[in-house]
Amino acid sequence: MAENCSKKINSIVTIQDRLKHVFDALGITIYQIAKELGENPSKFYNILNGRAKPSYDTIMSLLACYPQISADYLIRGITPILKSPEENARLLNEEDETLEVPFVPVKFYATFVESYTDGLSATDTETFRVRKAVAKNHKQAVVLEISGNSMSPQLAHGAKVLAVPVGENNWEYQSGGVYAVMYRDYFVVKRIRDNELLTRKYLTLHSDNPNGGNVTVPLQDIRGLWKIVTIVEAPVE
What we know:
Elements: H1 2-8, H2 15-26, H3 30-37, H4 41-48, H5 56-65, H6 71-76, H7 85-95, E1 98-104, H8 109-115, E2 126-131, H9 132-135, E3 142-145, E4 160-165, E5 178-183, E6 186-196, E7 202-206, E8 215-218, E9 222-233
Parallel strand pairs: 1-3
Antiparallel strand pairs: 1-2, 3-4, 4-9, 5-6, 5-9, 6-7, 7-8
Helix pairs in contact: 3-4
């Protein structure tokens, strides 16, 4: 038994090599993979070039998004690379489903701000198809298109992100992540580092790009807050 196993497992093949074999077998590009997983393509370039190793979460996300991949091959190097066509078909029918999520492109920012009260009507917006595995249990999620490069390199102009609304009673507890913030007649995507809503009644919004600048927003000017949970589409830079 041990002899049979040793014939199948090739310890010389690194995880980077196994990933390359998997991507070749699937016939997909790094950009397509990053788009499906909501990741930056540079992450996978670094992994495949040996500058980084894939995390457990990355491997699990790949297996969830592409159920035709053999976990035995990806994790342990035991062939075959892909599962049988019959099993693929069964798994894809179960897993490869999408949801239509309300979509706010850059060109509709002004309309969104003007018409926003305390919710988003799907009947008045475009929609964007998102995998159920990505949307998960995010209630009232919306897909936003990123405007400008103030949040680059993580979020480039034109990227699509999944965002979920934050209830007003939880605004003062948000910190460390990236958020879409509607205040007065503005709608911006920034990082919250200094949340002083509870103590000083204002919120400081930061750009990841040093040239993007920061802005301080008084509590009374904030109309809505959404937490960015993942990237659903990223442009090639």
